[in-house]
Each structure stands twice: as structure tokens, then as C-alpha cells.
């Protein structure tokens, strides 16, 4: 094998390893600046170029970006790099504030106690949670107990602690918890109470 062929193979492997380390294919929405209108593009994060944020659909120049919303956990260093480049990052969980259960916004659930049930995703540390506040569960399918974000997607949280922090922001405090095992999977049940407001 000739030396230039070896060099080509080495460069290909190095490029593959670089892309494998930097491309995380995470869902994002890019808000672009425009003189006459706002442009929002749904894309998947692929990495960085020279002064660009690279998506699956296209590359976005930093100076044209108004903001970026990540819907998944960004890889370490991604947010810091964008902020250092002058790109605004919208909290990837900002859509949680519009979260709904059974079509009802969490902020409008008018009950004193709720129970959240957390189940770990397969081969992942992340969890999906369901909320029981006494709503009717159609056909016992579980669909009407699941939390959907502001985009209608099933809400995924990093852990049960993340779930507690999320519920705390929505006005609920921890009361009690227990765990049951279904098959080889732990299912976490947390009882929460709605926080009393100072204003009566």
C-alpha cells in the first residue's frame, strides 16, 4: 500500500472519530434573524464549523442566529461554546412551562394532592413520568396520565430528582415516596402536595 493511500485512510479514520465525538444529533429549533420576518427552523445538531452551528439541514452562521432551543440534553461544552460565540440559548426545558396532562396545563390543575410515577427508559438513565390527579384515564391506556411538553411531545426528564424539581417549579412539594419492582424495572411513586400560596 502506497504512503498516500495510508495517509488517506488515517485522515478518514481521524475525521470519523472527530465526528463521532462531536455529532450528537440532538433536536433543536434555530431562531434566525431577518429584516422582515422571524424564521424558525427545526433541525438536528451535528457540530460546529467555522463560525457556524451545523445542523442536519444546513449550517447556521452565528451572527444570523437570534437564539437556539435544545429539546434534549446538549453534550458537555456545546452550550458554553455557543454562549462564548454570542449565541443565546433558550432553556431547553422552557417548553415544560407549557406542559399538559390530559389536555390540562399543569399550572391549572386545581387539586391538593397528585402522584407522579416515574419509569426509567430502556438502556437510559432518563425517565418518563405520569401524573395522577384523579383524572379519568381513557381505556386505561396511560396516555391521559402522561406529561406532554409545549410541542405535544412526551416529556422526558433526567431523573426523579429532575422530576421533583420540575414539579416544584409548578407549585408542588414532596410528601412521600415508595418504589415497586415490575419485572426487573423499578417504578417510582412520589406523592406531592400543592404548595399553599401566601395570598388567600
Which features does this protein show?
single chain, 200 residues, alpha+beta, 5-stranded antiparallel beta sheet, 3 helices, 14 strands, 38% strand
Describe this structure in words.
The protein is of the alpha+beta class. It is 18% helix and 38% strand. The chain is built from 3 helices and 14 strands. It has helices at 3-22, 78-84, 160-169, and strands at 26-32, 39-49, 52-55, 59-61, 65-70, 89-90, 100-101, 104-105, 113-120, 127-132, 147-148, 156-157, 172-182, 185-194. The protein has a 6-stranded mixed β-sheet. It has a 5-stranded antiparallel β-sheet with strand order 12-10-9-14-13, covered by helices on one side. The protein starts with a helix and ends in a 6-residue tail after the last strand. The model is unreliable at 14-24 (pLDDT under 50).
State the separation between the terminal residues, measured CA to CA.
82 Å
* Beta strand %: 35-45%
Nearest-angstrom radius of gyration? 22 Å
* Main sheet specs: 6 strands, mixed
| Average pLDDT score | 76
The main sheet orders its strands as: 4-3-2-1-5-6
Task: List how many beta strands DSSP finds.
Answer: 14
Topology as H/E string?
HEEEEEHEEEEEEEHEE
Overall geometric form:
globular
| Quaternary status | single chain
Coarse structural class:
alpha+beta
**Percent helix range:** 10-25%
Low-confidence runs: 14-24
> Number of helical runs?
3
Amino acid at each position: 500500500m502506497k504512503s498516500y493511500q495510508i495517509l488517506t485512510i488515517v485522515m478518514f479514520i481521524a475525521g470519523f472519530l472527530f465526528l463521532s465525538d462531536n455529532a450528537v444529533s440532538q433536536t433543536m429549533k434555530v431562531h434566525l434573524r431577518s429584516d422582515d420576518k422571524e424564521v424558525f427552523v427545526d433541525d438536528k445538531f451535528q457540530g460546529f464549523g467555522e463560525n457556524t452551528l451545523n445542523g442536519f439541514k444546513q449550517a447556521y452562521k452565528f451572527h444570523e442566529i437570534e437564539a437556539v432551543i435544545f429539546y434534549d440534553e446538549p453534550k458537555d461544552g456545546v452550550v458554553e461554546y455557543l454562549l462564548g460565540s454570542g449565541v443565546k440559548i433558550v432553556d431547553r426545558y422552557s417548553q415544560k412551562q407549557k406542559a399538559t396532562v390530559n389536555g390540562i396545563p399543569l399550572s391549572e390543575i386545581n387539586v391538593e394532592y397528585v402522584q407522579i410515577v416515574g419509569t426509567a427508559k430502556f438502556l437510559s438513565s432518563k425517565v418518563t413520568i405520569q401524573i395522577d390527579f384523579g383524572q379519568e384515564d381513557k381505556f386505561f391506556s396511560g396516555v391521559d396520565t402522561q406529561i406532554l411538553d409545549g410541542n405535544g411531545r412526551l416529556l422526558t426528564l433526567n431523573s426523579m430528582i429532575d422530576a421533583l424539581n420540575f414539579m416544584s417549579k409548578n407549585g408542588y412539594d414532596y410528601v412521600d415516596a415508595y418504589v415497586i419492582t415490575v419485572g426487573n424495572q423499578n417504578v417510582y411513586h412520589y406523592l406531592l402536595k400543592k404548595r399553599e400560596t401566601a395570598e388567600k
